Amino acid sequence: MTLQLIIGKASCDHRQVLLKDLYETLEKQPSDQFYYIVPNHIKFESEVATLENLARQTGAVDQYAQSQVQVFSFPRLAWYFMKNTPYYQIPRISSAGLNMIVYQSIVDHADDLVLFKGEATRPGFISKLANQLSELKIGRVTDEDLQQVAGQVTGQSADLDAKLHDLTIVYQAFDAAMRDKYIENTDILNALADFLKSADLSQAHFYIDGFSQFSAQEIKLLQQMMGSAASLEVSLVLDQPAIREDGHGQGLFFQSKKTYHQLVGLARAEQVQVMTDKVAKISRICPDLQQVENYWIASSNSQKIAPAVPFESSSSIEIVQANNRYSEVAQIAAEIRRLVATKGYRYSDFLILSRKLDRYQNVLAPIFSAQEIPYFNDNQLAMTNHPFVELITALFEVNRHYYRYKDLMRLLKTELLIPKDQEDHFMPIDEFRRSLALAENWVLKTGYEGRRWLQEDDWQYAKFEPGDGGVETTKNEEIATQINQIRRFVKETLPPFFKKIKAAQTGQEAAKILYQFLEDTGVETQLISWRDTFIDQGDLVSADQPEQTWDALCDMLDEYVEILGDREFDLDEFLALLQAGFEGAAFAQIPSTLDQVILSESGMVQMNNRKVTFMIGSTDDVMPDTTVSNRLLSDQDREKMTLPDDKYLSDTNSTSLKNEPFLNYLAFSSASERLVFTYSLNGDEDEARQMSPYVSRIAKHFNISIQDHAAVPDPKQNEIWHYLGAKRATLRHLVQVSDASRTQEEPLAPAWQYVYQTLTNDDHYRDMTAQLLGGMTYHNVPKSLAPDIVSALYGQTIFTSISKLEEFYTNEYAYFLKYGLKLQERSVFELSPASTGEFFHAAMDYLIKMVRKQKLDLAALDSQQLNEMVDEIVDQILNDPENLQFAILKSSNRMSYISSQLVETIRRMAATLHEQSKRTPMRATQTEVMFGRIGAEQGMKSLSFELPNNRKVEVRGKIDRIDQMAIDGKNYVGIVDYKSSDHDFNLSDAYQGTTMQMMTYLDAVKRNLDTITGDKDAQIAGALYLHLSNPKLAFKEILKLASDDDFLEALLSKEKYKGILVDDSVLIDKLDSKIGVDGYGKSTIYPFGKKKTDGAAMANSRLIRVSDLTLLLRHTEKLIKNAATRIFEGETDLNPAKWTNQRTALQYSPFKSIMQFDPLLTENKYHEITKMADEDVLAALRKESD
């Protein structure tokens, strides 16, 4: 019985010393058993390295095998010794099962708990408590120990008192539930230590390698080995002088030194002979890396630092800065490719380390795949993001939130629940995706949730599109069929399952119902199909995941039935336990090949057989790492707790921080030839990062310059190996450098020209290279449409509304996208401004028609009659089955409130029309008056214009309201356009084509006067806007009002018409009866006023002479013909309008991502809409007529 300690720096070959001893002992005692114990993380590689070493010592040339030597981790050692014992046959429990037992323990003892009783349902608490119990077991701390500690710290902290009290109760209940029924991983080593007490280890030799510290369980096991085995050798990374140094918890090797004295103390206590330390002296790293090691040891231990000696190789230690993580990893991948291709390296010679490898997950896979570099990421991959886990979570969320849109889409988009046809075949996946996308679009548009998914009747699909005469509704039976296929699948599949599981009395019933549901719906079949597809694609890592997730669920259900199966079933508890189980589950990963780059974290034990180590992400926030634990027993709690020497918990955060230099030291020493530090200046969300202070110290001492390889190559630079690699990856850089060459007007360096020739001569990359490089000469300028395309889009006649042609004048390319290609935004269930406007329009239409149908006069109605009419109108609109677009107003309490506000606005406008009617003889005679054909309806004659090449444009539309009045036998006709926002007529915009609506409508009325009035000599009165609103008066305004009449006048002033009126004295004198009586004043209804002095029009009156109006109408016709002619000529210029107030046509455009308009590009220019004074516009019109 001996204890032999092997010490030495990390750079020295500890394994060589251990295996030399092992071999020599094996030669002397060939029948003995030899156990080489390493951390589980490196067990496979250690086994290979051990056999290779022994083969070399033996002199074996070909194959070598050894039955007396075993390479194990501690858990695997337990299996080796105990696999046939009754104890080892007890079922092993998973992390999910542990959570279930912990949950059961809390529920059963809820009345006795102080702190944990209210925490059991908090997300994550059960897992946190289970982890704490596992840590206690690893530390060999029993419930009796907790009771003793509780007695020692009573009164120091009420929180700690409560924790220890509750922990003791739960711990006792947990142990009782586990005893003789289950074992967990943390129990195995304690059981092994007990087993070895009675085992014959007299011919057993143990060699421990790769550990710097041991848990209390492992120490107990080593103690047992010391007392029973023939020999025990332990290797520690520990500089020999450090053993003799004073200072508890200080210095680079403080953890190793603590372990060293711990082992020596145990040996002496067991009366085991402690052999003289052996020092590993053979260095396995190059002299330059030895210099870095010596500096790091001296500087970390506050020792005298030797002067730096120039490195033998400039590449031994490098520091590389990059702009971002993508560029950082791309440079590393290119360097690995170069070394493998030109220097004889193998991929297995490289190790990539990062303290936070997850930060690089999004860039590592695509870059290494593009560079065709085999790699293995040994970080555990959690199951939580797998679609099957998402399905389980979403399934119960659908029930909890009653068929909420978000939950249903989460469930269906896992693509594991697929409808079947009548022959029990799954729906083709492409067909399913299209049907689901259509269903989602419809749900977003209509807001269908909850009971809508379960209704008996199929959904009626209708498409609402803004047409020339308002919103047009089109039904599509084919789309309706696809949408309802998804709806019926949900209705027929989910409610029966939810009904059954809600009726479950016990946990066992519920588990069986869930399993049967997954079987019956073909979820397992889909997972198997996924596995087979991945196998066919050669992706063996992904192929194993579907089966692992299914097995994980089955194991959890088995444990749930075993542990909680007889208890009363609780659905929320069931889901919480499943989620906690999946949160703690990870995929088992097996390297697919031996020759591959290893990606790992620097805090983990690594094999020391690599030649090159890249330490990525060497920034100040992770090197050193400032870990903040979220353990149940906090650092403050642990500092107050005093446990026996052979029982202890894991390190506090402060101790872990002190160990950071040592952990990084091990990483620095992991390679034999080169150490490369890399970091990017920008981290998550572009937050700036600095170089690690550790790296900065090394750089400063050895005067290492920081390399900064530009993400974009320099076209003049001929040294380009940083950017070379696999052809696909190199092509990316060729595109970048070619673009830089064009921008800088510099020729490509010969090296890049060679790359270009190589890729263009490659059969696989020739077309891609030409396509990508061709894109660099691209200008963001749309091409004019070819005549055949124009004919296909528009035919020989353009049927259009004037608003469409206005769009052409504000941006030709937007017109092409919207009305040529007919692109549309995805509709969502919301009350848009357009929908609000349509609601108001419908109400005004109903009101006027109701008044005329009943032969009433608005001016004669009282408020009660008006309100009754409004109530009837709103009821008709909201309950009309054809008015699907207003269904949103009844969809929720919030929408009901908004609906009531809209109704109040209608009431206000009805009152406004009533008051206005009392002051003017002008009366609304027609509403929603069409001209041209809109859909299946034919209105008045359209505005039709002949164009060159036998083409034609026909303008159609719908006029909101036509008003008429007669004065001395002379008929006047005006139009009113309702607006849900404030509008006024802008003569400058009308002249430039961006607001032609009012003039076009007037033109249509003028051409159809005989149809409208029966009087072809009727006169045009004007074109007006009415803002449909419920105006409010400011408090200051109210204070100025002397009477109710003043209040009414003030409201009417806010609701007055805006636009233009014909400057006809007969019309103006009679239009506002109040002004007609006084002969002067400002109208509260119409946009004019008369001076008291001479009765002339006030300066701000919006009046236009008949002759000027005629010129404006003629100019509008020219604009229509001009726009149509240019459309037929294929014009699609990207020329968004920009007004003098900086408003642009792009401001609310849904097509910005398509147009990619950039005013900084020389080819992208705004179409400036200049502000013209009214006098200038009229002068221009008169000049045109000359």
Automatic annotation (TrEMBL):
SUPFAM superfamilies from the UniProt entry: P-loop containing nucleoside triphosphate hydrolases (SSF52540), Restriction endonuclease-like (SSF52980)
Other facts noted in the record for this chain: Despite having helicase-like domains, this subunit does not have helicase activity.
Keyword flag DNA repair: yes
GO terms for MF: 4 iron, 4 sulfur cluster binding; 5'-3' exonuclease activity; ATP binding; double-stranded DNA binding; helicase activity; hydrolase activity, acting on acid anhydrides; metal ion binding
Cofactor: Mg(2+)
EC number of this enzyme: 3.1.-.-
Gene3D superfamilies linked to this entry: 3.90.320.10, P-loop containing nucleotide triphosphate hydrolases (3.40.50.300)
One Pfam family of this chain: PDDEXK_1
Quaternary state and interactors: Heterodimer of AddA and RexB.
Assigned protein family: Belongs to the helicase family. AddB/RexB type 2 subfamily.
Family matches, as InterPro entries: ADDB_N, DNA_helicase_suAddB, DNA_helicase_suRexB, P-loop_NTPase, PDDEXK-like_dom_sf, PDDEXK_AddAB-type, Restrct_endonuc-II-like
Protein's UniProt name: ATP-dependent helicase/deoxyribonuclease subunit B
Keyword Iron among record annotations: yes
Keywords: 4Fe-4S, ATP-binding, DNA damage, DNA repair, DNA-binding, Exonuclease, Helicase, Hydrolase, Iron, Iron-sulfur, Metal-binding, Nuclease, Nucleotide-binding
Domain PD-(D/E)XK endonuclease-like: 801-1051
Enzyme's top EC category: hydrolase
Superkingdom to which the source organism belongs: Bacteria
HAMAP family listed in its UniProt record: AddB_type2
Protein function: The heterodimer acts as both an ATP-dependent DNA helicase and an ATP-dependent, dual-direction single-stranded exonuclease. Recognizes the chi site generating a DNA molecule suitable for the initiation of homologous recombination. This subunit has 5' -> 3' nuclease activity but not helicase activity.
Domain ATP-dependent helicase/deoxyribonuclease subunit B N-terminal: 5-292
GO biological process assignments: double-strand break repair via homologous recombination
Coiled coil: none
Record PANTHER family: RECBCD ENZYME SUBUNIT RECC
